[in-house]
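Case study.
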Amino acid sequence: MTGSDDNLWQGDVEKLKGLVSERALTGETMVLNMGPQHPSTHGVLRLLLELDGETVVTCVPDIGYLHTGIEKNMESKRYEQSIVMTDRMDYLSPMGNNLVYCLAMEKLIDLDVPPRAQVIRVLLSELTRINSHLVWLGTHALDIGAMSVFLYCFRERERLLDIFEMVSGQRMMSTYFRPGGVWRDVPAEFEPAVRDFINYFPPRVDDYEKLLTNNPLWLDRTQGIGFISADDAIRYGCSGPTLRGSGVNWDIRKALPYSGYENFDFDVPLGQHGDVYDRYLIRIEEMRQSLRIVEQALDKLPDGPVRSNNRKYVPPPRSELGQSMEAVIHHFKLWTEGFRPPVGEVYQRIESPRGELGCYLVSDGEPKPWRVHFRTPSFIHLSVLPLMSKDHLIADLVGIIGSVDIVLGDCDR
Amino acid sequence: MGLTSKLGNMGVVTVKLEDAINWSRTRAMWPMLFGLACCAIEMMSTQAAVYDLSRFGMELMRPSPRQSDLMIVAGRVTRKMAPVLRQLYDQMPDPKWVISMGDCASCGGVFNNYAIVQGVDEIVPVDVYVAGCPPRPEQLIHGIMMLHERIKQERIKDWA
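After joint prediction, the assembly is written out as follows.
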């Protein structure tokens, strides 16, 4: 689609210089526009493709069609208020975004998190990972031509959304994690619902594998496609399944544990070939491993409070307000002015479903952050797209875009 | 069954032309497959197994604007995306309708800043607004049924 003022490649050959090869300028190869309205660009990604026949010579991503100004907007909101913004960045893993921002705040002000809240966070983060991978699998398979997988994945996803709604009152944008813990304790029906899901889900993953893993059509479309070597993946800053697909053992949950991930027993699946198929296998296996973590977390869910008792940063519960003057003062201060963290800067990273999600937070001592920056995996992974898609057919490009699992909200923010 | 026994062997139903046309339009809408942000995921949920939008005659989403008559603006519209959205709307053949899905598309939502268009009605005429961030699939379905009601009230003299 066309129409913006800065038409990068609307018939103006001069503007294409440096982006595409010399052959395109002489008309030997064709320059084609793909997106931003295209069913398999997973949102509003726009690509400039240089094609030799059906073969991709180069592809230049054009991003920013979903630039929301979230980082700037967060500077004008207080620390607690801006958590709602983080949900809407990577909208397939809202709890992961909440988590990285809360962890960064907690690192900045050195706030404790009670053990029960830690375990609830891990549990819900892993359910979010499954949720994200289900959407990925459904849409990725749909791009390549397997329609029914999409319907199955979304059927299972509804159960997860029911669980999220149970704890937070919202299906997607939960804003459930808060600095110092979680918003409130999980309800009584939470545990049976998760147990039910733990029993329900593994046969469903087997079903997906039956449909896809040994399907000759699927193998033809994915094996040997979108190759990236381990060296290149590291050099381009890949992380998550995109990096592990090339056989690099790097998972932040293992390497730099946060929220008590060191207490859980799980495997990190690794690929060998670095192609679309290996990345698919890894994400399928990750769903099983996440379920293992969920089961362990549910078994050892400790009793106790779910939010820190540090009243300078965490508002007191309603029940205290009628009895304690101090609680009223703290409540008033926190809801009118917000808390003032010490001056400083922190970087906190977590393993989001897509890779390393980092939050860089700078505080100047005011109740609002001076600068928030997110290091988002989708943005980094988009830069490997030209490398991965080189010399592939244009039909394989949609499979490659799907296999790096980009979310444009995460990329543009 | 009911209808045939009432009709007997007459085989004729009389109905106003505009009612027949409106009825058929509501029963075979082709929404455009056009997702922008978070709401697009809920739109996909609405389309998928549990909520099954095809019960309302929307079996199929068309990726091409030239084959669709309903645009569901699902998500925040950025200033960069706005011209693209308008062009897509212009490419849709008449009659066409627009549902603004979610708070961002309806009024900017939580994002009151330089990047987001404060309501898609600045760019295209909107028939139904669906509130929510993101709206539940039931809410979107309710919006679609409201649109059906609206279409049923259209009159031939308004089309010209």
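Observations recorded in class. The beta strands of chain A are 30-34, 46-52, 55-62, 177-178, 181-182, 344-352, 355-363, 371-375. The two ends of chain A are 22 Å apart (CA to CA). We will return to this complex in the next lecture.
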